[in-house]
Amino acid sequence: MKQNIDRFEEHLRGKKRVLAVGHFHPDGDATGAVVAMASFLKSIGIECSIVLPSPIPSYLDFLDPRKSILFYTQERERADRLIFESDLIICLDFNSLSRTEDMEKALKESKAPKILIDHHLNPVTEEFSLIFSDPSASATCELLWRVLMNTSFTHGDICALPHEAHIALAAGILADTNNFSNSVTPDTFTMASQLLHSGIDLAELNDRLFKHFSENRLKMLGELLTRSMVFHPHINACSMILSQQTKRSFDYKEGDTEGFVNIPLSVRDVEVSALFTESDGYVKVSLRSKGGVSVNALSAQYFNGGGHERAAGGKIYLPLEEVRGYFERSLEQFLREHK
Ligand code: 5GP
Ligand code: MN
Q: Helices (H) and strands (E) in the chain — how many of each?
């Protein structure tokens, strides 16, 4: 760590225009991490812009009150210019440039050194000049906190960071641990304790992250649970499918399905839960597990994706009516292979 921190500080020296980047469909951790990084860099006199591959869901708008984040799908030319003019690019909360979708090409063509700070398994090492990777960190924001606290800019004092960064870091761990219910380590609570000392309002953050959805979103969940949820007892699994039509009838907005896939895991014998969401040209896959099934490996093998041992995502290109059968066959085969 110490050696990498020295290299991190070396990379920052003399930099004029840094860019912070997160993954496609940014969540609380990706958004929190880019905001905290930009806020830290500004506090030490380094200009930092943020480009995300696609827009943040509206419940995360509070992390970007000045609307300074650029979204690649909306302002591609400006974003490309920023990518090519940057003298350093910091990549947060993804393990491969392919997770930035359409931004991947520009990022690969940019000559700027790229630093990765991330907690997903198996980072693509050749894409980055410096890597901080720790799959045991509950969130990228937790790893980022560890990095920042070890720099000579903070000397371990969280109060050396701007308050905006405190809020963003806290949002990241709350989001990725689902309010401290999974992947937490003693470090997570050390960080949380420091953040509380710094004056963040945990209850307010909790409301913003988990209690700021629309009435329609709750009704859509009701529809999914009653009409779409299917249990597959022979493989201890559960699947749900959200069609474009259902999305339209409930006025679906980006981020509305956040948390849905966790719900079937509350059933005793369900060890794998899958949510398939029909999107433009593909079906988005969300997988969660409890017990021993690695949904990261399942997703890499059958769903063109990855993530973490117990939370992963991916994409498939099948007609919606074939999705459930494909899921059953894939998981059956996976369980046979991984007995
Ligand atoms: P979610 O189900 O919440 O969309 O994603 C769960 C986890 O899987 C997150 O850590 C996310 O980064 C990862 N993930 C989601 N979609 C993809 C994907 O298409 N490819 C890969 N490699 N990881 C994904
Ligand atoms: Mn994350």
A: 12, 12
